[in-house]
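Notes from hallway chat w/ T.B., transcribed later so I don't forget. T.B. wanted the structure written out for a chain they're using in a teaching module, and asked if we could keep both sequence and structure tokens in one place. Agreed to drop them here.
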Amino acid sequence: MTDTLRIAVIGAGYWGPNLARNFRASPHWELAAVCDLDTDRAQRLAGPGSGVRVTSSVEALLADDTLDAVAIATPAGTHHDIACAALAAGKHVLVEKPLADTSGRGAAMARKAAENSLVLMTDHTYCYTPAVLKIRELIDEGALGDILFIDSVRINLGLIQPDVDVFWDLAPHDLSIIDFVLPGGLRPLSVSAQGADPLGAGKACVGYLTLPLQHGAIAHVHVNWLSPTKIRTMIIGGTKRTLVWDDLNPQQRVSVYDRGVDLETQSLDGLERRAAAISYRLGDTWSPALSEREALDSMVTEFATSIRERRAPRTDAGSGLRVLEVLEAASRSLAENTVVTFPSTPQATVLQAQLAGEPA
């Protein structure tokens, strides 16, 4: 493996061009090949006279011993087979979200990567935005205190997807961000989903996801294909401060409010109870400085660095599995009109322990 890693992009449709552009521009990578069933589309992505190989055969591509890695940007139902074939061929693998179409297949991909000592990374792109990286930093350093609630809204007048509902289309972004910024990742106690199909599209076009978290905290995600206005906001409330992320506000994407409600526990006649007294904090508001680096640039750099350092990437297979398990629970909740209790040791946790040789 040379200093510059050689990669092929599999899938030249919606997301593939974004990946190819960033791999081509990165000093860590050489875009060596583009693979797509539509070779004309793949050729347009490769560019005339670029020297980038074009093929419609995944098998032929994976037979190239000079390739270090592949990036998979194909429908979720194909991720498992392509990724496992690539891992068996000794290639590191980057997979666009979601990691797979089921958590079982995602877990099989993770095991295959571990067996071959290869990196399997989930492309949770939003986790590499300057705003989300700053949010994670603030939470890690305790600037917000203990997390009390997370309220996320991702709505727009969007394309009705032919193969998935609005939860599987939009919520992976919010879930992956929550998983990324919370210490220990996303581990809800239960999952409750409510959806509506006012257009008669045969799938939920508007959705609400409620996730009770540890220690009395709660997360709520609202996704919608039918809103005439586009909103991308996340509010994270803590015991010390509250953070607001507005992704559509380039002048002030992240704001931190030193405002909130304080409840003090008092003792009366030896019995602990919550006092009726409430105090309000009305402090300053400030906005941290953010870099303007493109998220995908940071993501492809992280992929290269994790390969060279032989470590798990920041958005590894475990993060992809945790998101998948919540999505599956949401589908079950929606279908059965019930609250789905999350296992105390989710599959992602069990798998991580197994791969580390530790008890779950």
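Follow-up for T.B.: Residues 317-336 form the longest helix (20 residues). Might be a good example for the class.
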